[in-house]
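Progress against Task 2.4 (sequence-to-structure conversion) is shown through the following example record, which the project officer requested during the mid-term review.
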Amino acid sequence: MRAVKILSVCGSGTVSSAMLSSKLTDVLEENGYHVEATEVSPGGVEGAMAAGKYDLIAYTSPVEGDYGVPILNATGFLVGINEDEFVEELLEAVGKLKL
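Structure tokens generated for the chain above:
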């Protein structure tokens, strides 16, 4: 099984996206997945998507456009609001991937 490739997006592409990547990795690894996460700012999404094959985008700063992958609002997940609902959405999206 290959890794789930996640693009993690926050306002500056540093602190919040790194924290989000860490939380996503923890949840997915607890559920048997290997994760490769990349952090970017919203301005870096288009370039990252063009340069690499990502399975989904998780964001705390809005992402514009359609990239042909699930785009999940992870703001609540990052700060601890409605985490269970987000995890359910995340696992559903990852479960549909061809890994």
